[in-house]
Automatic annotation (TrEMBL):
<dbReference type="GO" id="GO:0005737">
    <property type="term" value="C:cytoplasm"/>
</dbReference>
<keyword id="KW-0119">Carbohydrate metabolism</keyword>
<feature type="domain" description="Glycosyl hydrolase family 32 C-terminal">
    <location>
        <begin position="344"/>
        <end position="480"/>
    </location>
</feature>
<comment type="similarity">
    <text>Belongs to the glycosyl hydrolase 32 family.</text>
</comment>
<dbReference type="InterPro" id="IPR013148">
    <property type="entry name" value="Glyco_hydro_32_N"/>
</dbReference>
<keyword id="KW-0326">Glycosidase</keyword>
<dbReference type="InterPro" id="IPR013320">
    <property type="entry name" value="ConA-like_dom_sf"/>
</dbReference>
<keyword id="KW-0378">Hydrolase</keyword>
<protein>
    <recommendedName>
        <fullName>Sucrose-6-phosphate hydrolase</fullName>
        <ecNumber>3.2.1.26</ecNumber>
    </recommendedName>
</protein>
<comment type="function">
    <text>Enables the bacterium to metabolize sucrose as a sole carbon source.</text>
</comment>
<dbReference type="InterPro" id="IPR051214">
    <property type="entry name" value="GH32_Enzymes"/>
</dbReference>
<comment type="pathway">
    <text>Glycan biosynthesis; sucrose metabolism.</text>
</comment>
<feature type="domain" description="Glycosyl hydrolase family 32 N-terminal">
    <location>
        <begin position="28"/>
        <end position="336"/>
    </location>
</feature>
<dbReference type="GO" id="GO:0004564">
    <property type="term" value="F:beta-fructofuranosidase activity"/>
</dbReference>
<dbReference type="Pfam" id="PF08244">
    <property type="entry name" value="Glyco_hydro_32C"/>
</dbReference>
<dbReference type="InterPro" id="IPR001362">
    <property type="entry name" value="Glyco_hydro_32"/>
</dbReference>
<dbReference type="GO" id="GO:0005985">
    <property type="term" value="P:sucrose metabolic process"/>
</dbReference>
Length: 494
């Protein structure tokens, strides 16, 4: 094993011991120490779930990208494994960037990732060269392939840039390996390229899978491409987006394109939508579980909102809760992974609570909860103007979810959560007009809130770093409404 990886493994082992359990979320994965961004290599290997992540063990800022590594039996309780890769070779010494993994027929864990090498031109300007590389392992130790990189700039189609060429996602279909990878053209537009291989090591360029055509942002990062419910789904995370109504927001965003594959094997787009309508969600990856569920996990953070960070924390970056995804009426549906139910503790349930003003329900509080709130007008008319749930509330700081039944808009808000930076703290999302009825499922886990609206028709996520003792929850309405609340405390069983 090389020095850099050994050093990282020794460091993380020591550092981890200094981080008390209560300092982390209960269910949301955080880096073993230091910094985490994108989920990588989400896969099943020898019957266990494996997840890697973009990782700088040494500091809570982005830096030399390693691959951190965890495994799990149920996608909720993760166990840290030693760091899998460090940036050290002549093709990846400036970063082992994002990628994916798959179990091969002969029982190996095959990783495809992007190697980054910083170069300097004759004028002294730095530029990156990004190539696709392979590493092979046994679920713990990984060996970089001696013939790396396996896809370089000379396997690019005309007009493709060599600088932004990253994040390969591998899959197997009809006995062959394929990968889709992000690319920025020399004239500055995003596209995704497809390659294929018989063995996972020797790759041939197939085609441009899809072009952005200057619609959604610029470079498309971290693609994923899979069959689901009779459709073909493409996920990607565009940089530098412009807003479109309440569908897409400025900056780094997420994009889901639902379509089908024609007789020539080409992807035909049908519907485009955001994946997550909140503030913090990026670079999701999916797997197909043994029982046939497509499960997605994303980075519960956004590049444009890094200033949500608490300087006193020994870790930065967390993953979303894994979500079961499906397609209904041409749209993406997301639900919290059902295994979360195995972690339910005390349950509080109230039916037909009339809310007219400010309302607190006894025992409805906490920072690790899975709570579903059903709201409806009290009569046949729209009897209320606004509904609000406040949470992580200590009387001074709080965050909120607001529903405006007239506009059919849900807003999440962390403006008063205690953060002192002028970053985005609110986001709105247009939801189905159901005459004032709405279902809000809220999952709180110490430093995050994920909101599943109307059985997963839309999801809004955000990080909140309010003091952990802020546990208050209250409900408010202008006018009069009726609600049911079912709250399950979440706890880790020993
Ligand atoms: C997305 C991303 C990827 C890249 C990685 C680097 O968040 O920019 O495109 O591989 O992060 O850490």
């Amino acid at each position: 094993m090389n020095d850099k990886l050994l050093k990282a493994r020794e460091y993380e082992c020591k550092k981890e011991k200094t981080i008390a359990e209560g300092f982390r979320p209960l269910f949301h994965l955080t880096p073993r120490c230091g910094w985490m961004n994108d989920p990588n290599g989400f896969s099943i290997y020898k019957g266990k779930y494996h997840l890697f992540y973009q990782y700088n063990p040494y500091e809570t800022v982005w830096g030399p990208m390693h691959w951190g590594h965890v495994e799990s039996e149920d996608l909720i309780d993760w166990k840290y494994l030693p760091a899998a890769m460090a940036p050290e070779t002549d093709y990846d010494k400036d970063g082992c960037f994002s990628g994916s993994a798959i179990e091969t027929e002969d029982g190996k864990h095959l990783i495809l990732y992007t190697g980054v090498l910083r170069k300097q031109d004759e004028n002294g300007n730095f530029y990156d060269v990004q190539t696709q590389c392979v590493a092979v392992g046994d679920g713990r130790d990984y060996e970089k392939y001696e013939m790396n990189p396996v896809i370089t700039g000379d396997k690019l189609p005309e007009g493709a840039g060599k600088i932004d060429f990253r994040d390969p996602k591998i899959w197997k279909e009809n006995g062959k390996y394929y990968l889709v990878v992000g690319n920025k053209t020399v004239d500055g537009d995003g596209q995704l390229l497809q390659y294929s291989s018989d063995d996972g090591f020797n790759w041939n360029y197939d085609k441009i899978l899809i072009k952005n055509n200057r619609r959604f942002g610029v470079m498309w990062e971290c693609p994923d491409y899979f069959a689901l419910d009779g459709k073909r789904v493409l996920l990607t995370s565009p940089q530098d987006m412009l807003p479109e109504g309440l569908e897409f927001h400025n900056g780094n965003g997420t994009l889901c394109i639902i379509g089908s594959v024609n007789d020539e094997g080409d992807f035909c787009e049908e519907n485009c939508q955001a994946v997550d309508y909140g503030i913090d969600f990026y670079a999701p990856q999916t797997i197909r579980t043994k029982d046939g569920r497509q499960v997605m996990i994303g980075w519960l953070q956004n590049w444009d909102a890094l200033a949500i960070k608490r300087e006193d924390f020994p870790w930065f970056g967390q993953m979303s809760l894994p979500r079961e995804i499906s397609i209904k009426n041409g749209r993406l549906i997301q639900k919290p992974i059902r295994e979360i139910k195995n972690y339910y503790g005390k349950r509080v349930s109230r039916q037909n609570v009339i809310v007219t003003d400010d309302c607190v329900l006894s025992s409805v509080e906490g920072r690790c909860i899975d709570m579903t709130v059903n709201v409806r007008p009290t009569g046949s008319d729209l009897s209320y103007g606004k509904f609000e749930i406040r949470f992580a509330d200590n009387g001074k700081e709080y965050s909120s979810i607001e529903f405006d039944p007239v506009e059919s808009v849900v807003k999440i808000d962390r403006k008063h959560s205690g953060n002192r930076r002028a970053i985005v703290h609110q986001r709105r999302c247009k939801v189905a007009d159901n005459n004032g009825e709405i279902t809000l499922r809220v999952i709180l886990d110490r430093y995050s809130m994920e909101l599943f609206i109307n059985d997963g028709e839309q999801v809004m996520s955000m990080g909140i770093f309010t003091d952990i003792k802020a546990e208050g929850i209250s409900f408010r309405a202008s006018g009069e409404l009726s609600m049911d609340v079912v709250m399950n405390e979440l706890e880790k069983k020993k």
